[in-house]
Hints:
By secondary structure, the chain is an all-alpha fold. It contains 12 helices and no strands. It has helices spanning 3-30, 36-58, 70-90, 95-102, 105-117, 123-140, 149-169, 177-198, 207-233, 236-239, 245-258, 264-287.
Amino acid sequence: MPRSRNAQGAIYMSSAMAGFSCSDALSKSVIAYMNAGQIMCLRGLFTSIFVYVIARYMGALRSWRMVLEPMVIVRVICEILAAVTYITALGMMPIANASAILQSLPLVVTFGAALFFSEPVGWRRWSAILVGLFGVLIIIRPGPDGFTAAALLCVGSVLTTAGRDLATRGIGPEIPSLMITVVTAVSVTIVGALLTPLLGGWQSVSLASLSHLLLAAILVLIGYQSVIMAMRTGEISFVAPFRYTSLIFSTLLGFVFFAEFPDLWTLTGAAVVIASGLYTFYREAKRHVPPVAQESEPRTPV
């Protein structure tokens, strides 16, 4: 493949990670003024409207009975849990720390694919998975001083996001992807509205907060499209590792807007996780088989 197409794919992937990271930062910026349920409701409402319009224009809407397929329901439940845990964690920990933990998502999905779909995973990739999970332990540092509720919530978000991606693999091809996204976004919006009273009630929303959530929803959609373009433009083995640029963007955003900077342990753990992930991509490139893990983006759930 011409190097120019790989370069384009790398730009698309990096742009997607920038979009997801900025969306995270915008959501974090309003967590002091409203609870996670309200954020899910408002951001999900904007996302639902945008995706519905796109799906209708693309003719991707089918019989709504299709969404009763078990794997679609599992995917929606996992997406909801991932959104609740991640948004709550963002309000309790530096954005770079949360992003560092999310970098383990491809490794967790690889583990799940081997466990539930019997995908072949050799001893080298099993070793990479174990090393990557050790990197996560370095980041969260189990113990009275390091293992916080925020870290636990972020790990929970990784697990439920991995569950979402694995459930997606089990959905029949007759159900359009855009329709699944519409159902997921609407479900997240409804659950967010139901959770709002339980998490402290509805708070008045300023124009600034509303604009932040609107922009966050737009950036997530741009991120989705950029990932698709990245995967279709360049070689997966070349493009996929650029997902790890999200940690760079998150660190910069945390430093500039929240005066946050990851400590040495977080940076060390992130380096271990990223190195493990890069090795799995290298092994997949040698096998010439695109794994489920390469389709899993370390990003904020809908």
